[in-house]
Predict the structure.
Amino acid sequence: MGPGKHLKGLTLWNGLVKPEEFDYFHELIINQEFSRPGMRGFQDGFLAGTTIGLPPVLNFGRPELKQKVVAEAFSGKKILCLAISEAFAGSDVAGLKTFAKKTDDGKHWIINGTKKWITNGTFADYFTVGCRTDKGFTVILVDRHASEGVETKQIKTSYSTAAGTAFVTFEEVKVPVENTLGEEGKGIFVILSNFNHERFVMCVASAATQRAIVEECLKWIHQRKAFGKPLTSQAVIRNKMASMIARTESVQAWLENITYQMNNMSYKEQADKLAGPIGLLKAYATKCAQETATDAVQIFGGRGITATGMGARIEHYHRTVPFDAILG
């Protein structure tokens, strides 16, 4: 979740870091370590939904709602997901069709519509939902267990069902107006500011996994022999490795530059000044990642397309690496 008042009173890393000292570099380290095992479906299932679903509650929820939901999320008792994308509207947030209408007494929202490709949606307890309303785009928190009419169906993707990717249906779902996040009709600001942090986390993970793939390749070329010599003796292999390392380290360097800036800006300033740089880094990082995945398969040969054994990590990475360019 990054640094902030929500960490007050918590014990972090067995007391190694004080809550008031925790910054975005600490968050960077945590997420890069989560990425190192290279199990993409588990990685997304483990924390992705809460990582992108909770910040709108933290930054725009009413105090009573925030106190309840944050405590449940941090204890691991409840899981959140961000429900924005629909079958006919992905990046086009303004084109969403899910509609929320207030009851006659103005005390509740009635939500109808569907969401698609919702990470963690299969097993989420809370849904941070983007809706159209009479006053414009609005974000509302839906408690699955407190509202009837919420149904989820698992979507099978090319990485793993562990991510809980879901098709979500809201049918006459009744939600208290107190669950509105931010102002009615101004949900676009809630979501766009949230995208910055989401994309930052994705860049963090992309840099870490690229480094891990480079490490796998370095190990492989030192042990694999071809034509009586290790692969390291082949100029074409050394050239590929040099390009992979240059790309990967440039991603990490740019990422650390942006992380430093985030540490010296408020959340509002980040939304204003870093939306462009973070978006550009995400585009650059994910393009570099796909090039590195292709080079890694060539270096590993047949093993690079085999789902088990020494090249399993390369195969998994090559199969799932396009996700980061699409998500967020």
About this structure: The chain has two domains: 36-185, 188-326. The first helix runs from residue 24 to 35. The two ends are 16 Å apart (CA to CA).
